[in-house]
Amino acid sequence: RATLTALFDPETGWLDRRVLSDESLYQLELERIFARGWNFMCHESQLKAPGDYLISYIGEDQVIVVRGADGEIRALLNTCRHRGNALCRAEQGRAKSFVCSYHGWNYALDGELIGVPGQSTFYHGELDKSRLSLAKARIESHLGFYFATLAEDAPSLHDYLGVTGRAGLGMICAHGEIEVAEGVQKNIIDCNWKIAVDNLFDWYHVPYSHASANTAGFLDIARIQFPKDQMVMLGEYGHAIGGPGIPRAAQDQINALTDAQRMELSHAQADMAPRIRPRAATDLMGPEGVRSEGHPNIFPNLWVTISGTQMCLRLPRGPSHTELWWYTLVPKAAPPEAKREIIRRMNHVFGPAGLLEQDDGENWSQSTRSSRGVASRTLGHNLQMGLGHDEAKVGAGGEHYIEGLISEHGQRWLYRAWTEWMSARDWAELKANHSAPPTGRV
Ligand code: FES
Ligand code: FE
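Structure tokens for the assembled complex are given below, as produced in the milestone run.
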């Protein structure tokens, strides 16, 4: 524990670079963060009918997320109980059962082992199939978003998300009923997963890293302002939201729109910018709502973009690689041409064909690479921006926030949570020792 807490000092913002490169720390992350946390699996719209499935991950454990004949969504580990072969090779599809391609063991949609070739002959009728069902992960949902954990002792998803995590998902659903567009875009960047996550809170880089997007006419950097009305929200267990806010008066105007007016506006703008987000400040985000919006991160690795129309999983693939899965979310009721337009625009923002993440990815990659050098890895990262100058307050919705956006409070919160998760032996210890969201001078 002492060694782990020495890797990040929240008082000075010093981060040991080995956090971004060390193989043994990575193995511990798989156990203590990914296996224990609630990992995003899918949105209910991705599994419409019984037998619909997709592959997802809890760290490096592959999971079949499948809607059973009874309509229930389950998370089954994608590994045959005979010799460990991956049962399901397709990324998504519809199945009646899962037959292993090695020796033909057959599993029902609920994971039960229902068929074994040679059961009465080669096994002499002695194989106890009832003990060889597929291993299951716990799965729970909030607003149609399904998450899974391998920890029996983890709190409920609702409690785990807390005000900040629930507000993050609420920001998406405040668009109305949504669905995931066909085709999750997947690509690998040579970077540690945490750098891809902590960039969410980094608005300092935008004018500089994305100068090329400005030159291309995609971003108008001169018009990006960071007034006081913006903030970073910090939640329990490491969830956070960081991003430009919208003035309360503008939110009130949005809330006054009728559904028809809002839908018209949504279609006209197609990208559903936050300013047309309905109800965001009310029923989905606490009694009084939060008055600012941004990119939420559901700890550890589900990134939601500020528009609420894209989400990304930062999946760990070793200390130096991260697989990014980009989802586009569209309102269910939108006409096909509006959906197409949303998808077209989103493809130009983040993701492998987007203009922004290519700039970011190159920087993350180089920061990760230099964390491996014998001399350079001793230098640490400096995350001191805003330290001691800002005040954490509590909003009427119970959210903890810091006014102003350009600081490194979000990054410090992330690495503080990382240290706490990595140091705790079990959920009881994590619950007892994790930091409550701050109040006062931070
Ligand atoms: Fe699956 Fe043998 S490994 S049937
Ligand atoms: Fe960026």
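The chain has a mean pLDDT of 87. Residues 157-173 form the longest helix (17 residues). Further analysis is deferred to the final report.
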